[in-house]
Specification:
Layout (H helix, E strand, L loop, with lengths): L20 E5 L9 E6 L6 E6 L2 E2 L5 E4 L12 E4 L3 E2 L2 E6 L9 E7 L4 E6 L4 H6 L9 H11 L3 H15 L7 E6 L4 E6 L7 E6 L4 E4 L17 E3 L3 H7 L13 H5 L18 H9 L6 H9 L11 E6 L9 E5 L9 E4 L29 H5 L3 H12 L3 H36 L3 H36 L37
Antiparallel strand pairs: 1-2, 1-14, 2-16, 3-8, 4-7, 5-6, 8-9, 9-10, 10-11, 11-12, 12-13, 13-15, 16-17, 17-18
Helix pairs in contact: 2-3, 9-11, 10-11
This protein binds 2-acetamido-2-deoxy-beta-D-glucopyranose (8 copies).
One 2-acetamido-2-deoxy-beta-D-glucopyranose binds next to loops.
Length: 510
Amino acid sequence: MFRHSIAAVTLWLASPATASYAFYVGKNLTSDGSVLVGGTGEEVSSHWLQLFPAKDHPPNATISVGVTEAASFPGELIQIPQANHTFRYLSMEYSDYEGFPAPLTNGGLNEKGVTVRDVWADNRQELLDMTPNPQHGLQYSDLARIVMERATTARHGVEIIGDLIAKYGESTYGGNSHLIADKNEGWVVWEMAGGAKIWAAQRLGPNDIKVLYPGYIEDFPTNFTGHPDFMGSSNIVSFAIEQGWWNETSGKPFNIFNVYGPQDPRYKARDGGYKFMSQAALEDATREMVPVTEEKLIQRVRDHRIADDEAGYGQVVSLRADIDPDMLRIWIAPTGSVSAPFVPWWLGVQSIPPEFGEHRYLTTGASSSFLNPDYELQEASIFAGRVFKRVLYYMCSDPNKYMPTVTEMLTSFESQSRDQVSGWVEKAAQALIDAGDRNATQNLLTYYSHSRASAALELGHTLNSALDGYIKLTGQWRSPIGNQINDSGEGNETVNCLVGYDPDQPKDRQ
Ligand SMILES: *[C@@H]1O[C@H](CO)[C@@H](O)[C@H](O)[C@H]1NC(C)=O
Ligand SMILES: *[C@@H]1O[C@H](CO)[C@@H](O)[C@H](O)[C@H]1NC(C)=O
Ligand SMILES: *[C@@H]1O[C@H](CO)[C@@H](O)[C@H](O)[C@H]1NC(C)=O
Ligand SMILES: *[C@@H]1O[C@H](CO)[C@@H](O)[C@H](O)[C@H]1NC(C)=O
Ligand SMILES: *[C@@H]1O[C@H](CO)[C@@H](O)[C@H](O)[C@H]1NC(C)=O
Ligand SMILES: *[C@@H]1O[C@H](CO)[C@@H](O)[C@H](O)[C@H]1NC(C)=O
Ligand SMILES: *[C@@H]1O[C@H](CO)[C@@H](O)[C@H](O)[C@H]1NC(C)=O
Ligand SMILES: *[C@@H]1O[C@H](CO)[C@@H](O)[C@H](O)[C@H]1NC(C)=O
């Protein structure tokens, strides 16, 4: 199932050490008419699941946004007004990216059925060089979080981002994009580095499949005022003309990637040359799966050519009309889904088990400070992220041997969850809603998600015990040869389940 005859791409260009990817599948291409969104965040940091209840805020409440002098492109935090009400949402949080202030998010799902994913999208060097020092304005995580807190539709999310950038600016790490979706459509928003408040957005419709890896937008109308499928900053065209990057007389279409993307001939809008699959190859592989289901999108997100040690979690959500907010469901794997099972969480869930909450493993500052006693029991609990990282490291030590079995166990676990979810959990929850018992609905959903999370953890322990025992008993244990526990930095191979650089060849351990 994993084998597609796509040539291995081994170019690593000026890519950030971490990246992320997002999938969008339009509602005419899915089996039940849902919009489907999946992806991951690629950050070294630990990731943990967090619930954010809806909240009212006092009239003059503010929030702190932006980056500090510790960021790769230094800046200063600013205060901006908080909304008077923020929506309930679920997010995988993390603590560390390019010196940005914790906690951070790439997005998640809110009670209005709006989902957000954040994906890097490099800009041309001139824009990076133009970025003011210090820079001011909202960074990618602020924007993702505010969209979840305030957006009632995907389009609304884009408008919110546009308004906030116009008012306060954007703090960059070199260019970034967001995928925002609701039950009808998706939008790609590309926020440009350079401090000139430039952004562009393109609508994704019912017949579109889009993979951001990195984010991209191609042909764009120069007059998009009132256009249903495009939005952008008012200077998106004029700035390009001023810089001499594009003009009307050149006869070339106004193409956002060509004008604002990296000016490297090896790097094309739909083929960034990152890792082993281009956006185009991933889009084609997804299109081959039409009609797409959650199960199939999970298979895409889990693909070992893109899901590796860098993938901080896996996320798949389907959005359709007429869902009670409590019944909005998102499937989340607690670390890279190549080695971790997806567990269903609903917005009606009232708490997260401690095992899936924040722990110190790979969390910023952990190695230079003792534990805050307030967290002693939290830290005493097992950390799901660590459990499934262990599965990854055992499994990828000999992927030909272990991966098929582990994958089959993960997918069998998920099939069982899916059968239960559609067989009785959601029917029972809906019946309780219809009977007017909101509290029992939420208790049921909480109970099921916790039970499934606990069973997932047991599966992780079982896999680790079996792999550890097998590897040691059969003489496969290898101690490290070097003395450097970290990878050697940007651009180097991380732990993955690829077999050499070509997924079809035996793994080259040189
Ligand atoms: C849905 O897709 C089919 C082809 O797969 C196409 O014929 C049809 O027009 C599409 N419907 C809409 C509403 O776009
Ligand atoms: C909110 O700010 C306004 C203007 O800055 C001020 O007049 C008002 O007293 C503040 N209200 C509260 C509740 O702090
Ligand atoms: C909160 O904001 C909404 C939308 O902007 C507005 O309709 C409402 O009156 C505000 N409520 C308060 C208490 O300020
Ligand atoms: C640009 O768009 C506006 C609003 O849709 C429209 O009124 C105008 O005619 C368009 N201009 C051109 C040159 O197409
Ligand atoms: C317009 O663009 C073309 C090709 O990109 C370039 O050769 C030409 O000098 C530009 N014209 C102006 C007026 O900038
Ligand atoms: C809701 O359920 C919780 C947990 O069972 C219970 O403690 C609480 O009393 C219930 N609240 C109401 C209003 O029924
Ligand atoms: C590993 O990375 C951290 C953070 O960059 C650094 O402080 C530490 O010195 C590195 N350790 C090794 C062994 O390279
Ligand atoms: C990858 O790591 C090796 C040492 O293990 C180093 O020689 C090489 O320069 C690194 N490559 C990149 C692109 O950082």
